[in-house]
Amino acid sequence: MEAQARGLLETEPLQGRDEDTVASADFPSMLSEEEKEELKAELVQLEDEITTLRQVLSAKERHLVEIKQKLGMNLMNELKQNFSRSWHDVQTTTAYKKTHETLSHAGQKATAAFSNVGTAISKKFGDMRRK
Fold it and tell me: CA triplet 116, 117, 118: central angle to 5 degrees?
């Protein structure tokens, strides 16, 4: 029974050989009338359960929307929150930190270089005025 139950819970999709086996199997002729009736009853029960679950999910989704409306939450607020959360997540990654550090260091070097160039140019203009 446990092996049979485990088979029902498998999450892996059928592979080529499995699909061929299932497609070529003649299940109706392998089942007794009693087994067919049991399977039909189980099928009806599963369909009813699925319908019930869909109705419950739909009711919960409506309730969720009502609560969000009462709290003043709308799509734009949610998008802002999601964006802020995502940006925070990006900023905490190692890659972002390293890149930020490297670019910051490069910016400092560039600023120093421009400052030196500006000083040199000012000095040359000063020298030219004196002559």
Answer: 90
